[in-house]
C-alpha cells in the first residue's frame, strides 16, 4: 500500500514538471508572482511595525469583492478587483485616521477595521450565496484562494502589476528607506513622508488585491509578513533583505504550488504559507541574525551597505 502511494506521488511529481497542463502552469506562476510582490512590499510594513495592516487590508477586500459582484451581477474579474482595491484602500486609510486619534492605539484600530470589514463581507457573501446567482458567483474561493483557477489573462494582470510594484520599490527605495527608519529626519531633508506613506498604502492595497485569488483574503497577510521577517534574520542590510525576502516568497510560491499538485485536496495558499513558515524557522535558528548567529556577532542592528548600522542618512540601494 505504501509502495503504491509512493509511486502515485512520484508519478504526479514527474507529471508536474512536464508542464503540460495550463492550470498547473498558471498556479505555479501566479503563486511565484504573489510570493515576490507580497514579500517586497511587506518588508516595509514589517520594518515600520505595521505588519497587521496587511491582515486588515486583506480581510477588508471581501466586502469590496461582494459589492462589485452585486453591482455587476457576474464574476467579472476587472470589476471584482476594482471593488477589492477600493475597499482595501479605504480600510487602510481608516486605520491611519483612527490611529492618529489620541484615544486609539494602532493595534486597536487595525482590529476594529479588520473585524468590521470582514464581518460586512461575510454577511454580503452569505446574501449572495442565498440568492439566485449563487451558482455563478464562485466568490468562496476568495476566502482561501484558488491558484489553480487563475486564468491566463488574470496571470498576465498579476504579473504586470507585481513587476510594476517591485520596480516602484526599486525606483523609490531611498525615500522609502529613509522615511521608514526615521520620519522626522526624512522630513528635515525634504522627503515627502506623507506621500511616501500613502504610496505605500496604495502599493499594499494593489499587492493584496492581485494576491487574493491565489492565496485568499485570510492568508494573504502571511505572505506579506513571513518572507520579510525570515529575511531579516539573514542579513543586516536592507537591500539584501529585500532580495532574500523576494527569493523566499518566490520559493514558497513555487513549492506551495508543487505540494498542492502533488497531493490532491491540499490548497495552494495554505501550502505556500506552511513552506514560508519552514523558511522562517530555518532563518530564525541558522540565520546570521538568528539564534545561532547571535552567538557569533555582537552587532545586531539592521544596516544598509557601507555602514554597520542603518540610519536614515545611510539607507541606500547600493
Give a verbal description of the structure:
This protein is mostly helical. α3 (51-72) crosses α11. The protein has 13 helices and no strands. It has one domain (1-300): ABC transporter involved in vitamin B12 uptake, BtuC, CATH 1.10.3470. The protein is globular, with a radius of gyration of 20 Å. It is a multi-pass membrane protein. It holds the Pfam family ABC-3. Keywords: Cell membrane, Membrane, Transmembrane, Transmembrane helix, Transport.
What's this, in brief?
By secondary structure, the protein is mainly alpha-helical. Helix content is 74%, strand content 0%.
Topology:
Layout: H1 2-16, H2 22-47, H3 51-72, H4 77-99, H5 106-129, H6 134-137, H7 141-144, H8 152-171, H9 173-181, H10 183-188, H11 193-231, H12 238-262, H13 268-286
Helix pairs in contact: 2-3, 2-8, 2-11, 2-12, 3-4, 3-5, 3-11, 4-5, 4-11, 8-11, 11-12, 11-13, 12-13
Amino acid at each position: 500500500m505504501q509502495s503504491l502511494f509512493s509511486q502515485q506521488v512520484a508519478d504526479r511529481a514527474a507529471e508536474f514538471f512536464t508542464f503540460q497542463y495550463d492550470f498547473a502552469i498558471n498556479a505555479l506562476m501566479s503563486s511565484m508572482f504573489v510570493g515576490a510582490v507580497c514579500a517586497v512590499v511587506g518588508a516595509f510594513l514589517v520594518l515600520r511595525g505595521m505588519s497587521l495592516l496587511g491582515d486588515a487590508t486583506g480581510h477588508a477586500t471581501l466586502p469590496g469583492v461582494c459589492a462589485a459582484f452585486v453591482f455587476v451581477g457576474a464574476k467579472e474579474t476587472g470589476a471584482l478587483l476594482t471593488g477589492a482595491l477600493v475597499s482595501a484602500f479605504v480600510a487602510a486609510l481608516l486605520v491611519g485616521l483612527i490611529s492618529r486619534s489620541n484615544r486609539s492605539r494602532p493595534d486597536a484600530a487595525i482590529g476594529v477595521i479588520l473585524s468590521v470589514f470582514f464581518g460586512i463581507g461575510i454577511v454580503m457573501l452569505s446574501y449572495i450565496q442565498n440568492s439566485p446567482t449563487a451558482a455563478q458567483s464562485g466568490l468562496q474561493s476568495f476566502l482561501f484562494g484558488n491558484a489553480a483557477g487563475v486564468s491566463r489573462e488574470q496571470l498576465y494582470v498579476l504579473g504586470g502589476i507585481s513587476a510594476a510594484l517591485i520596480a516602484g520599490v526599486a525606483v523609490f527605495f531611498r525615500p522609502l528607506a529613509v522615511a521608514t527608519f526615521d520620519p522626522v529626519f526624512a522630513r528635515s531633508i525634504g522627503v515627502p513622508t506623507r506621500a511616501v506613506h500613502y504610496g505605500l498604502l496604495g502599493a499594499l492595497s494593489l499587492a493584496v488585491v492581485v494576491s487574493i485569488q491565489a492565496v485568499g483574503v485570510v492568508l494573504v497577510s502571511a505572505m506579506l509578513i513571513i518572507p520579510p521577517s525570515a529575511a531579516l534574520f539573514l542579513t543586516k542590510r536592507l537591500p539584501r533583505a529585500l532580495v532574500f525576502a523576494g527569493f523566499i516568497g518566490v520559493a514558497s510560491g513555487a513549492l506551495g504550488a508543487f505540494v498542492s499538485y502533488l497531493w490532491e485536496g491540499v490548497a495552494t495558499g495554505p501550502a505556500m504559507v506552511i513552506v514560508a513558515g519552514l523558511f522562517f524557522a530555518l532563518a530564525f535558528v541558522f540565520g546570521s541574525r538568528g539564534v545561532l548567529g547571535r552567538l557569533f556577532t555582537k552587532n545586531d542592528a539592521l544596516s544598509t551597505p557601507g555602514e554597520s548600522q542603518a540610519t536614515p542618512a545611510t539607507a541606500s540601494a547600493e
